[in-house]
Write a structure and sequence with these properties.
With 199 residues, the protein is mainly alpha-helical. It contains eleven helices and no strands. The relative contact order is 0.11.
Length: 199
């Protein structure tokens, strides 16, 4: 009760951050173990996170987009290789990223998604250590955040970039990080001229 709250208030910030970080990493390890034991879909469904298969479904649209481009198609319009027949809703820059990362190989695709997830976890860990908060921990383990992990959404990479930007002392590096994150995600803005031509 009140005594525990007093202890939390008097506990050094570094100690609180370490404990919150340990809880966060333990939760992620638990999810990983559950996936190994029970499978991808069952684990996420048990956490109330809607699951799609194959894994990292959002990034699959980029993987399929590379195949569509080879066929002479615009993957933002036609993306037949996507498991759910979705047009690629990421900026075209992601085709270059996917090609460089070897998305057309399943191994290359999974390695990239693993690196992206690792960067996200590192960024989240830095924030927990810098700004220890139960609310932040709850947000990092919320179903919306876990859904981004399940889907391999590029928000994970953008979150990592913006976290680094917020921790930068150099305004130039911080601005460059924000610009990079914007280029990777603000596709509706880039689509406005094309939409205007149709009406």
């Amino acid at each position: 009760g009140t005594g525990e709250a007093d202890v939390a208030r008097t506990m050094p910030s570094s100690t609180r951050g370490q404990r919150l970080l340990a809880a966060y990493l333990l939760a992620l390890v638990g999810i990983g173990v559950a996936i190994q034991l029970s499978g991808w879909t069952r684990t996420w469904q048990a956490l109330s996170v809607p699951s799609l298969s194959p894994v990292f479904a959002d990034m699959r649209s980029v993987q399929a987009g590379l195949s569509a481009r080879r066929q002479g198609l615009d993957p933002q319009v036609e993306n037949p290789g996507d498991p759910w027949q979705r047009p690629m809703n990421y900026p075209r820059l992601w085709l270059a990223i996917g090609s460089a990362a070897g998305f057309e190989s399943e191994r290359g695709f999974l390695v990239y998604c693993g690196v992206q997830l690792t960067l996200f976890v590192l960024a989240a860990s830095l924030l927990l250590l810098r700004f220890p908060s139960l609310l932040l921990l709850a947000a990092l383990l919320s179903t919306s955040t876990l859904l981004a992990i399940e889907r391999g959404n590029n928000y994970l990479l953008i979150y990592a970039i913006l976290t680094l930007a917020s921790l930068q002392r150099s305004s130039v590096l911080g601005a460059a990080a924000v610009l990079a994150a914007s280029v990777l995600k603000i596709y509706p803005l880039f689509a406005l001229p094309a939409a205007a031509e149709r009406f």
